[in-house]
């Protein structure tokens, strides 16, 4: 909020674009999950929650905490970001962690899109099981208005 | 140090194993880089540095900061961990970030090994370049005595 | 062939669905490239070409050969497939190869979609460069009518 | 065999190096599996088998067919290769396919090593399950004498 009322920024029309692609807010993934990201700290860090969406139909996942950081959106048009989700699972002691690594793009209509690749590790019971511990995929997030 | 002198732990021989696989300390990767990890906070967070090693011969990379967390090493034999490195590059404004996701294993000789997969993103200039922004690989770290 | 002439199947309109998700034909990727796949052999093998599309604007890539195979589309609703593209590049001797691994899905409207993850290797000059040789990503293909 | 007895090659000591890194033969992976690769065809194609090794202790996997190709080992010192394994599993109808993409390196002692990244897809039952279908990892193979 104080960003928007800052005297410097209110004088600079060119910063309107730069104020986009801040990860703060609510996002929906292409698999129907929701993500809520806190206000960013001065150095770009954030925390938040990853929630199963209505479309997911997967009640196994509970609301799970995430932490990450993003590159300064006032300095670059397509800031990169990274965050880690520690999954909270119903009826399971298995440790699952996902590392997301991505970049925010703004379309010609001003719509922000997060493009991310992720690695998901399910804790292996032994070194001999390590080879199959990691999945890979992509996620695309759009802002929930 | 206070862990080792704690009265509870000094009474419990079975915790000797559990005290391994704390990421704090110095590690060498299979590509000859070094990593120094801080003492872990109570909730498992750490910071540190990633350094090009003598074997790397790659002066492009400067000492780069890392941040991450690990699962409680006193509760599980092979704790998982994740950390993010924001690369500092000589003569380059390119933003490069690596997300490591892995697990610590202890050999029969007590030697700790970190097995990790990583994603490395080099910031894309535009959405059309996004498809080729991400590399993938594995790293194995052993503790530097 | 005997499937198609089987009395049971010839009476069953529901097998029309099963005949979908044969990879033969022309496809467009979400990055604007085109792919042309030959008629499949009896054991599911195919060859074809990968072409830069009009949307790609990347004249570096020339029409490149591909080879692969798919699981029997008449036996499963979402057959898996794999194929390899050996890239032909203008003004470059670099060897680049992509391995695609995916699955075909049919929407409620009958539209076929190919979901694939890929690894792209650019030949490393030496073992010391091997760690950065491989990129990862996803592609989605839809059939060109 | 006729390569080795070819008059041209027997006159040219410099080609001794070039004859290495042909994938034909038997290999052991760092996870204890064995791989047997056929003589390469003139255009670099090969077939073969992937076998669970004695160290694997995983009787779930049966000997599984593989097919692939490699870059001409007589033209480049570190030829790239790719191959696909269609897994044969005991007591399972699940379709699993792995795409390997890698490069062969020759050490100073003449020992050949294959460095590969792979994607392993387990067929998803529906598009909603597709996001978690793919695992990623690395394999290192050394030749069995």
UniProtKB/TrEMBL annotation, chains A, B, C, D:
InterPro entries: Avidin, Avidin-like_sf, Avidin/str, Avidin/Streptavidin-rel. Homotetramer. The keyword Signal applies. It holds the Pfam family Avidin. Gene3D superfamilies: Avidin-like. It comes from the Eukaryota. It is found in: Secreted. It comes from Buteo japonicus. One of its GO terms (molecular function) is biotin binding. This is Avidin. Belongs to the avidin/streptavidin family.
